[in-house]
């Protein structure tokens, strides 16, 4: 805990009756006002352009909704890994296909819940704005039946929490959020800021809101994941992105310590502009990666459609039907293919074998029965390529 506070721009530390100091965030926007000039203004324009290119890249795909949830799955995996889960994208896909084995990380259910929470929130945005009510709903979905599930899912905390290394106490914590009785008011002020009618750029509003949410830390568990979900929901709600295809957790995970340091620097020194630089750099970087993924999806789809047309003869129609379904659900069984195509089991089995010969499907279990086939070239486009811990730099 800092002994001397250099700035109260983001809020202030107040000593509590039992001796520890808690942080009380000031309402947004910051005072003195943000300095959105010079390099920061240029970076904001660069981020806007990068998001525009990403949006255009995804919307030119033949059926964008088919591809959206692979982006969502990647964000779910990366955001959960920041909180210490070990599950990979491959583990998540296997769990969704009910393919469990003893080598699968036990925390995969947490990632499955993240996908559920994302889908729930995106659906609710059709009728409900980003709000405390929505945040509580997605928190309830996120923690349902998993680690932290006993810590009041969907309910604002009713006790003091803190952030720090394992075994730390309130007195030795790295950061102590406001007391629980102040959380409802702080969230209400954040909600008002989210929907204020002013000329603050959308990306700046979203970046500020993320820090404020993490500072309030309104739940006993799951605050980091909900705070990153909030970024996606706000990008979608304000129309910056038409589809939730920005996996910003990739950048936060790659620069994890810098991410935490920037959040704390805002609280201690009011370093909002430094945080905005970091955040907007991430938007530019990840938007470019996601747009490149969209381009590669398009090329892969064209390549495999041509291979099916040239290689499957009269079965090409069913082959194309299976291919399109794989973009949303990249692991299938022969029975799945039979249901998709309305053919007999032997015909579906033959179709799967021919798609495997073309390099489109790959058998992933090694079993003689209950086999699962993965659209390996497509999954590979989303495989996490984050460099090893300690090798990344800003």
From TrEMBL:
The keyword Cell inner membrane does not apply. Residues 130-281 form the Fido domain. Gene3D superfamilies: Fido-like domain. ATP binds at residues 83, 217, 221-228, 259-260. It is an enzyme of class 2 (transferase). The active site is at 217. It holds the Pfam family Fic_N. PANTHER family: FIDO DOMAIN-CONTAINING PROTEIN, FIDO DOMAIN-CONTAINING PROTEIN DDB_G0283145. Adenylyltransferase that mediates the addition of adenosine 5'-monophosphate (AMP) to specific residues of target proteins. Homodimer. This is Protein adenylyltransferase. It comes from Luteimonas chenhongjianii.
